[in-house]
From TrEMBL:
Organism the protein comes from: Gloeocapsopsis crepidinum LEGE 06123
Protein known as: Lipid-A-disaccharide synthase
PANTHER family documented for this protein: LIPID-A-DISACCHARIDE SYNTHASE, SLL0192 PROTEIN
Origin: domain of life: Bacteria
Source lineage: Bacteria, Bacillati, Cyanobacteriota, Cyanophyceae, Oscillatoriophycideae
InterPro entries in alphabetical order: Lipid-A-disac_synthase-rel_put (IPR019994)
Length: 414
């Protein structure tokens, strides 16, 4: 933790970035990196959730107290996690962070990245602020053709609202000190602009930095079906997800006995490979380094070739948040099924399927994946529509630079 007083003596305008989760931290870093290239502004960060390790790559100092909570930041998905976080010091941490943000607000501006939590912090600072909304999209409720069908009466009530952003959200975004709002897609931007909110349609930074790096050297085989495996990044949940994904893999090997199958497992650095390798061996695979083989199939585990996995794969078996959306944003299709959580529950997967539309096929059980894959491969027209849908919902690369340019203008940073 760096002392806030280190910034107080500087006469340069200062920017504090607030974010609430690892995915939000990564998006924030992409914007801040571009901002550093455009201006000499002093930048600091305060990750409200987690320790904000993504900021270290830019040597951005973290001010105030940070702490990883038992829920990992997913308390909104499981109310039982709230008590655990409170017992873990959430209230004390929040009070401390609010004091830091208010102190910063006397001399600097704020960029909030995430949901209503950092947005509330920014509003309460008394400073001018901007907001990158990563958590909500109008696509959760509707698409260009109409409203989504919802199962429960409570969920159907959400469609009666004027926006996926509630009145409190819109008040904070419409406040005179809020200089810019960057929604995650065009549909959401156009909706917010109806309330005179300074919303800019500049794209989704989630799609930046995904260029292939050619770290994964694969032989060419036009007949091979390459499938990306995404178990998520949060232990121990990701290990449980992996077991379910392996069940789907086994079914695919049985369903396509004469076709070469390559499974690329993009494993987050937060996970340990040993239990994943052991699960493959227990499932009948033979091991050679981080490559595993069984019959007509190979599984490659990698922790450093994520971008290459995204580009090499034809489709994905996904139980992840950000990674699933990035893969779909490249015009590809994913198949998902719910896990035990706390993140990738049925509620999360169902909401994600609404958000991503036809690009994400949601099944109830891993054993149904093989049939879903067969159906996709037999429908080239559907695959083309899926590609167009992914590009539309996730946007073109370059959003971080465009947002940074807008921040320079809105905050008068020239």
């Amino acid at each position: 933790m760096n002392n806030l007083s280190a910034f107080s003596s500087s006469s340069t305008l200062k920017l504090l970035c607030l974010s609430n989760g690892h995915g939000e931290d990564v998006i924030a870093v992409r914007i801040l990196q571009k901002l550093q290239q455009l201006t000499s502004i002093d930048i600091a960060a305060l990750p409200i959730v987690g320790e904000g390790r993504a900021y270290s790559q830019l040597s951005i100092p973290i001010i105030g107290a940070v702490q990883t909570m038992p829920s990992g930041g997913f308390i909104y998905m499981d109310g039982r996690q709230v008590l655990r976080d409170l017992q873990g010091g959430l209230l004390k941490l929040t009070v401390s962070q609010i004091k830091v943000v208010r102190s910063w607000g006397k001399t600097g501006v704020i960029l909030a990245v995430g949901d209503i939590v950092p947005l509330l912090f920014a509003w309460g600072s008394g400073a001018n602020y901007a907001f990158v909304g990563t958590a909500k999209s109008e696509y959760y409720r509707r698409d260009e053709s109409g409203w989504h069908q919802r199962r429960s009466p409570i969920s159907r009530l959400e469609n009666l609202s004027s926006s996926v952003y509630h009145p409190v959200d819109r008040y904070l975004m419409r406040h005179p000190r809020c200089k810019a709002v960057f929604p995650r897609d065009t549909l959401t931007t156009k909706t917010l602009q109806k309330w005179a909110i300074p919303a800019f349609d500049l794209g989704n930074p989630m799609m930046d930095g995904l260029e292939a790096q050619n770290l994964l050297k694969l032989d060419t085989d036009p007949q091979r079906l390459t499938i990306l495996l995404l178990p998520g990044s949060r232990p121990p949940e990701a290990y449980e997800n992996w077991q379910k994904i392996l069940l789907a893999v086994t079914q695919l090997i049985f369903a396509f006995p004469t076709r070469s199958l390559l499974f690329l497992a993009a494993i987050a650095p937060t996970l340990t490979l040993e239990p994943l390798c052991q699960s493959l061996i227990d499932s009948g695979f033979s091991q050679a380094s981080l490559t595993f083989e069984q019959k007509n199939a190979s599984v490659i585990l990698t922790q450093n070739a994520y971008n290459d996995c995204l580009h090499q794969a034809d489709l994905a078996i996904a139980m992840a948040g950000t990674a699933t959306e990035q893969f779909i944003g490249l015009g590809k299709c994913a198949i998902a099924f719910p896990g035990n959580g706390p993140q990738y529950t049925y509620a999360f997967a169902e909401a994600q399927s609404r958000h991503l539309g036809s690009s994400l096929t949601l099944v109830e059980h891993p054993k149904q994946v093989a049939d879903a894959v067969r159906s996709l491969l037999q429908d080239p027209t559907r695959l083309q529509q899926i590609a167009e849908n992914g590009y539309q919902r996730m946007g073109e690369p370059g959003a971080a630079h465009r947002i940074a340019q807008c921040l320079v203008q809105q905050f008068n940073l020239e």
